[in-house]
Amino acid sequence: MTSLHTNPLFDRLDSAERILVAGAGGGFDIYAGLPIALSLIHRNKRVQLANLSFSALEGLPLDSWLAPDLAVITPETSLHQVYFPERTLAQWLALHGYPGRVHALSRTGVQPLRDAYRALIERYDIDAVVLVDGGTDILMRGDESGLGTPEEDLTSVAALAAIEGPDRLVVSIGFGVDAYHGVSHGLVLENIAALDRDGAYLGAFSVPRTTREGALFVDAVAHAQEHTPDHPSIVNGSIAAAVRGEFGDVRFTSRTGNSELFINPLMSLYFAFELEGIARNCLYLDRIEHTHLIRQVSSAIETFRDEVLQRPPRQIPH
């Protein structure tokens, strides 16, 4: 049992020396883990960064590949496309004096992604993994009225669930952003309560703008927006706005021009969990276990959704 004055997530990571912080859902998800990764680096932990990548990794030079479906990205990595969050983050890290290295994982099904994660864990002798979701769809069981975009998130969960050895944790930040993808955050809260009863919930904590890590996160997101002007991250832009203390319909990209945003302090909260608990509570994880392609994951989830009785949205009282 932990004490109230301590942080259960960092308590769990205290004895770990070599930690992998990985973006679960692709895109800019790894940015959502940056405050945690930087905090661990500032405590002299040896931290590796990885991200399920939406970039065209098949165009990478041969010397970028560490294993099938696993590449190492540096500020100088050659790939002829502007949208490359892993390289953009590597460049920001190098600018600020941190190791400019981010690992890119191919967008595959569970089996090859597990092999890539296993290669990454063995290469760096990782003793703890923090899987990060920018948003809350990683917390969806599968029987909710709307799941958001769970394919990549739960593929990452399933891949890591069967890798024994390192401590495996999940964090979610950006409560509320998935409302625009059909997620009922009343059901998110219901799921968190169920995970708590199951012993898998490790509590929540905020990323204040007055902390070193909070300020660096805001700077990293601004750098990414500047270097990816045509496709900036709405999720991380929303989280960064919340960390800055902004509220309501905050504009930071034309991509949200047709939506009314609700930036609020809850978006800057990390919710932390045992990965095994997330896996145990997902109702379709066995359906995607033997997949090799991401489209097989999508098909398996669609088939499951056709068979299950869905829970209606839950309104948060106001």
Automatic annotation (TrEMBL):
* Matches recorded under InterPro entries: DUF1152
Q: Which domain of life is it from?
A: Bacteria
- The name of this protein is DUF1152 domain-containing protein
- Output the lineage of the source organism: Bacteria, Bacillati, Actinomycetota, Actinomycetes, Kitasatosporales
